[in-house]
């Protein structure tokens, strides 16, 4: 496809002293409305360098762009506005989408490079809550987006399957649990035991010592401790995998914290050799005062390891195993300090790749009125949230389209989509308050709205074909019939897809894709309401259908990137 920005930048750069094509490219903007052109150069940004008024610059450049793709150029109040040839523009974009199909918007920028993403990473024996959902969905979207950009992406679930909480759980299980209850209730029962431990330990602090004792035994390889631990892990994994199936998420590695048991010792030794480890009242830590951070604890008094110890071992292991270009960690911003410390430690150890470790933090999720603290036990379980979303969607479908064949399947796709999209629709760093009304609104800026718009495009194509096929009935179209503002508005949006995916990949920000999809859906719905598609005039009908098909392809590609399914009938 013609890269218009590049084309214009290439034509202008030779006339702008001291600026290369790349620099001009960075200055070009898409004007807020088409009356101001398709691309625009704000010349006031150049007036200092060129020592000329913005208007003089714009005037001098006006005659410099002549190309068959450019209809005219205007100089208005210091802006150089470029108007593209509409017919060529529409034809170029739509043919490109139709020809590329499932790969429209992709690129090979990342080919030959590996990116490792550590995401989801729930804690064993604690329920999977909506905080983990955000990590799961952001990580999954980044996986699809980066792959679409050509990278090899490795998905790692750094399960929280090691740590003092297992000591607590073992103590609680032995005192108040039963095999039968754990087998029957699964994580629910493990959570009950965990909460009970904390309740009891409030008045009987010696329980904490007992728990620490058990964790130490576990780390030393005690058979009974190991047997119980393994069982708790299996029970939890079974439930997590149900959720991953529902969400359509999978992993390339489940190497969790316990995977590093035998890989921590060498790291500790290395820290010692490099004089980074200091003893402090029996425990071992890395001082980070010089970097305005509290020390990072690496070994407790009793010699047991910590979250940091395992993460240090994991980073080294991942570099050795995957030779990554970048290693990404997706967690809540509550862990900002942890990762700043970790990355600094890797740097102090002398690893030049420490600069390639990237924390991708996100804001907290709250559900009106509910708390997410595990210790208190009143957490919002993701499974409940998802099943409610599916049930509510099922009701909406029942009202909207009672004749639909596979209601359950569609309710699952749209219900889950609503939750996922809601998590990905604002900048990841923002805290979000979850609201049912907002997430499930078929007319708002939601997952269901975009999925529904995609299904609407499919439905038009089916009607045109008189069958269940959503292929384009005829090849070839006359782009000169797509010059009205609604149709061009759609084409303009479609053109931006690749650029948006690129931005989302660079900023590791899936919301750029989600918001873009809402823009495409809105542009399409305007076109759909203003321009009848299945008209008698065969040429007009063919041209409009080509645009519908291009929209359907783009929406489907985009929805897949953020992990949503794309039912053809809703
Ligand atoms: N299990 C942790 C939690 O639930 C997240 C782990 C993130 N990954 C890591 N390598 N530290 O908070």
UniProtKB/TrEMBL annotation:
Q: Which GO terms describe its molecular function?
A: arginine-tRNA ligase activity; ATP binding
User: Is the keyword rRNA-binding assigned to this protein?
Assistant: no
Ranges for the DALR anticodon binding domain?
450-570
This protein's species is Paenibacillus aurantius
* Keyword list, A-Z: Aminoacyl-tRNA synthetase, ATP-binding, Cytoplasm, Ligase, Nucleotide-binding, Protein biosynthesis
Localization recorded for this chain is: Cytoplasm
Q: Which InterPro entries match?
A: aa-tRNA-synth_I_CS, Arg-tRNA-ligase, Arg-tRNA-synth_N, Arg-tRNA-synth_N_sf, ArgRS_core, DALR_anticod-bd, Rossmann-like_a/b/a_fold, tRNAsynth_Ia_anticodon-bd
Q: Which reaction does it catalyse?
A: tRNA(Arg) + L-arginine + ATP = L-arginyl-tRNA(Arg) + AMP + diphosphate
Which enzyme class? Answer: ligase
Ranges of residues in domain Arginyl tRNA synthetase N-terminal: 6-84
Q: What is this protein called?
A: Arginine--tRNA ligase
Q: Which family does it belong to?
A: Belongs to the class-I aminoacyl-tRNA synthetase family.
Q: Name one Pfam family in it.
A: DALR_1
| Lineage, highest ranks first | Bacteria, Bacillati, Bacillota, Bacilli, Bacillales
The reply to whether Transit peptide figures as a keyword in the UniProt entry is no
């Amino acid at each position: 496809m013609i890269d218009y920005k590049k084309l214009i930048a290439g034509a202008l750069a030779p006339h702008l002293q001291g600026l290369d094509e790349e620099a001009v490219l960075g200055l070009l903007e898409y004007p807020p409305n088409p009356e101001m052109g398709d691309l625009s150069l704000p010349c006031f940004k150049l007036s200092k360098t060129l020592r000329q008024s913005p208007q003089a610059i714009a005037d001098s450049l006006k005659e410099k762009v002549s190309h068959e793709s450019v209809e005219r150029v205007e100089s208005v109040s210091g802006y150089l506005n470029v108007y593209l040839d509409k017919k060529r523009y529409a034809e170029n974009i739509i043919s490109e989408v139709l020809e590329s199909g499932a790969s429209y918007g992709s690129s090979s920028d990342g080919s030959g490079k590996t990116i490792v993403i550590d995401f989801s990473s729930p804690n064993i024996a604690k329920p999977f809550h909506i905080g983990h959902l955000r990590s799961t969905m952001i990580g999954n979207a980044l996986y699809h987006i980066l792959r679409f950009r050509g990278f090899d992406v490795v998905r790692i679930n750094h399960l929280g399957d090691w740590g003092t909480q297992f000591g607590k759980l073992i103590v609680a299980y032995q005192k108040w649990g039963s095999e039968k209850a754990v087998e029957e209730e699964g994580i629910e029962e493990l959570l009950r035991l965990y909460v009970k431990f904390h309740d009891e330990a409030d008045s009987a602090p010696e329980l904490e010592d007992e728990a620490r004792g058990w964790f130490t035994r576990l780390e030393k390889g005690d058979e009974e401790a190991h047997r119980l631990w393994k069982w708790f892990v299996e029970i939890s994994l079974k439930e997590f995998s149900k959720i991953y199936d529902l969400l359509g998420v999978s992993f390339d590695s489940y190497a969790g914290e316990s995977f590093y048991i035998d890989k921590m010792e060498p790291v500790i030794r290395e820290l010692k050799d490099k004089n980074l480890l200091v003893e402090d009242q029996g425990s071992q830590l890395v001082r980070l005062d010089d970097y305005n951070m509290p020390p990072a604890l690496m070994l407790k008094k009793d010699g047991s390891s910590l979250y940091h110890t395992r993460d240090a071992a994991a980073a080294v292991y991942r570099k050795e195993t995957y030779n990554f270009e970048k290693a990404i960690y997706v967690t809540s911003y509550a862990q900002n300090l942890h990762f700043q410390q970790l990355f600094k430690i890797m740097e102090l150890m002398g690893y030049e790749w420490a600069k390639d470790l990237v924390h991708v933090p996100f804001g907290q999720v709250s559900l009106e009125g509910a708390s997410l603290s595990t210790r208190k036990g009143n957490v919002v379980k993701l499974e409940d949230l998802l099943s409610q979303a599916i049930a509510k969607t099922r009701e909406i479908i029942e009202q909207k389209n009672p004749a639909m064949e596979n209601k359950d399947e569609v309710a699952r796709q749209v219900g889950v989509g609503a939750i996922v999209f809601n998590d990905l629709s604002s900048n990841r760093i923002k805290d979000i308050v979850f609201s049912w009304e907002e997430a499930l609104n078929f007319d708002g800026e939601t997952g269901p709205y975009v999925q529904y718009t995609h299904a609407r495009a499919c439905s038009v194509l089916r009607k045109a074909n008189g069958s269940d096929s959503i292929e384009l009935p005829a090849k070839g179209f006359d782009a000169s019939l797509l010059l009205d503002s609604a149709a061009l508005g759609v084409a303009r949006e479609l053109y931006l897809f690749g650029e948006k995916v690129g931005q989302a990949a660079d900023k590791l920000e899936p919301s750029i894709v989600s918001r873009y999809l809402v823009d495409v859906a809105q542009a399409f719905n305007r076109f759909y309401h203003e321009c009848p598609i299945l008209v008698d005039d065969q040429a007009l009908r063919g041209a409009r259908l080509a645009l519908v098909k291009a929209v359907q392809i783009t929406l489907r590609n985009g929805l897949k990137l953020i992990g949503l399914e794309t039912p053809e009938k809703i």
